[in-house]
Amino acid sequence: MVRLESERLSYEKFTQEHFADYFRLVSEQDVMQYITGAALNEEQAKARFQVALNADRGLHHFGFLAVFEKETGTFTGLAKIVPFETNLCEIGYALFPAFWGKGYATEITRTMVSYAKQLGNVPELIALVSPENHSSVKVLTKQGFVFFREIVDAGGTRHDYILRI
Question: Residue 142: its pLDDT value, please?
Fold first, then answer.
C-alpha cells in the first residue's frame, strides 16, 4: 500500500514505531466505548497492535493505518481496510475525541471507499458498528452504506453495514 492522502489527512501503514500513538488512542474510554466497550490497558493494546502488525505482513494493498493531519502532522487516529469473510473488505476508523465533529470520519470513510474502488478487486465493503454509535451510522449511510445484518453474540450486538462497489 502506498501512502494515501485525502483533503486534510495522510495515511500510512502502522509500524512498531506507531505503538505509542496507538496506545494513547485505545487507552481512551471515549474512543473505545463502541469498539471494545472499554479502554485498553498497555498489555491489551500491545496484543491487539501485534495482531494488526502480523495481519498487515501479508497484505500489501490492505492494512491498519495511522492517520495524521497533513497541516500539523498530528496523529488523529487510525483507519483500516482489511479482508473480511469471502468477497468483503472491512473498513473502520477510530479518532481522538478532539477530532470528532470535524468531518474526519467522513473523510476517512470516503478515502477508504475510493481506495477500494481503485484496487478494482473489492466487490463489497463492510463496516461493523455498535447500534448505539449513531454518529458512525450517519457517516456510513452518507457514503452509501446500507444496513446488512445484526450480529448478536456473547460480546453484545453489532450492526453490519455494506456497500457494493
Answer: 96
